[in-house]
Amino acid sequence: MQVHVADHPLISHKLTKLRDERTDSPTFRRLADELVTLLAYEATRDVRVSPVDVKTPVAVAKGVQLTDPRPLVVPILRAGLGMLEGMQRLLPTAEVGFLGMVRNEETLEAVTYAERLPEDLTGRQCYVLDPMLATGGSLATAIDFLVKRGANHITAITLLAAPEGVARMEKELEGIDIPVNLVTAGLDEKLNELGYIVPGLGDAGDRLYGVVD
Ligand code: PRP
Ligand code: URA
User: What is the pTM of this model?
Assistant: First the structure.
């Protein structure tokens, strides 16, 4: 897995505000949205395009257009939903599939409670959105869904990642022979005993949408 940790002062600035425990939900949502758009620029560096001619008012110019089949964007509910609009801003014609997952807070394993993805993803480029890569259980499960349906290029976009989660992803991807990239705004220090990223930003879903019991 290729890991790209964004290195841009605007991303660092927005990530700092996002982490701040005093940042309220509306501001948190806006910052997450802006961060994703900045990350999406990097994450789509290898989006597939085909050559096309375009007629300007003056002459014909050579250009490119997104190749069919269009990329598929997959936010992991709930928190990944907070990243969807920011991604669509850059890739408005991408299709969107959904995966609903929640971590069992005792075992830390991801439980899938919803799935709405095309049956056949043969040859598709997929972009998975999830703000937090903690133990890696959720992202590994999501990637497994996509690979089994034929996706042949996957990029995960996260706001924060933990080294433990990156290591798990590397291990889980050993037998997978398609390119998988991770683009993240920050790579933090570690996980704590509850599986939270340290220093992190807390529970991303709760900070976006409030606490659900
Ligand atoms: C959070 C987060 C990730 C997952 C990461 O979701 O949004 O999906 O935890 O943890 P992992 O890498 O250890 O799997 P959560 O289970 O809190 O659900 P939510 O998005 O509904 O809040
Ligand atoms: N999920 C979150 O929302 N935050 C963490 O720190 C870890 C998992």
Answer: 0.97
pLDDT in tens, 86-114: 999 999 999 999 999 999 989 999 999 99
**Between the CA of residue 58 and those of 54, 61, 64, 69, 128, what are the distances in Å?**
11, 9, 18, 31, 40
Q: Which of 19, 103, 124, 168 is catalytic?
A: 103
Which residues line the pocket of ligand 2, CB cutoff 6 A?
Answer: 132, 134, 195-197, 200, 203-205
Distances (CA, A) of 10 to 15, 31, 47, 106, 145: 8, 11, 23, 36, 33
State which ligand 2 atom lies nearest to the alpha carbon of 204. Answer: 3
Q: Residue written as tokens 């976009």?
A: 157
Note the Cα 14 to chain centre separation in Å. Answer: 17
Q: List helix spans (H) across 71-203.
A: 84-90, 137-148, 163-172
For ligand 2, atom 4, the nearest C-alpha belongs to 203
